[in-house]
Amino acid sequence: MPAPRKRVGKRTHAQKSAAARVACLALDMEQPLNDALDAAHALRLLGHGLNQIASEEDGRAAAAIAWTVCQRLNALQQLWRQLFKHAAQARS
Predict the structure, then answer these.
(1) Cα separation of 40 and 81, whole Å?
(2) Domain total in the chain
């Protein structure tokens, strides 16, 4: 009895469904990610303001921590964009 043939080059329904779920999840993540990034940038600006108005050490510390958070959130945003791009490609 011959072995059943596999489809070559065609995606299964389950793969398209999974890609659609990932794309939907990525879209749901967009607004909270952007809000977190905006909040981190606002904290960085507050740190620079404290640096000029109040004690230089306190302002510098707040700005440095906020800058680290901004960098990590930017890296997460880049990963999010790649995830969304790959999910969109998988759906088509």
Answers:
(1) 19
(2) 1
Does a structural domain hold residue 31?
yes
Give phi and psi for 5, each to the nearest 5: -85, 145
Is residue 29 domain-resident?
yes
Containing domain of residue 46, as a range?
13-91
Mean residue pLDDT of the chain comes to 80
Quote the DSSP letter at residue 8. S
Query: Dihedral sign, CA of 23, 28, 29, 34?
Result: positive
Q: How far is CA 53 from the centre of its chain?
A: 34
For the record, the structure tokens of 51 come out as 């640096």
Higher-pLDDT residue of 15, 46: 46
Lowest mean pLDDT among 13-22, 26-35, 43-52, 70-79: 13-22
